Amino acid sequence: MKIFDCFMYFDEEVVLDVRLNTLDKYVDYFVIVESEFTHSGDKRDLKFNHKKFEKFKNKIIYK
């Protein structure tokens, strides 16, 4: 059985860092979803920094 941690990302690097480091030994994959649009439908830039979380690159599925 594989364990996936799935969450929406919106520029919360500190929260993501704590989450990845805390759950790393329990989770097989982290599914990170980031939208190109706000909840009100406005276009926004993607903020997820792949380089900052290089340590987890084999566990991160980013959409």
From TrEMBL:
Pfam families: Glyco_transf_17. GO terms for molecular function: beta-1,4-mannosylglycoprotein 4-beta-N-acetylglucosaminyltransferase activity. InterPro entries: Glyco_trans_17. One of its GO terms (cellular component) is membrane. GO terms for biological process: N-acetylglucosamine metabolic process. This is Uncharacterized protein.
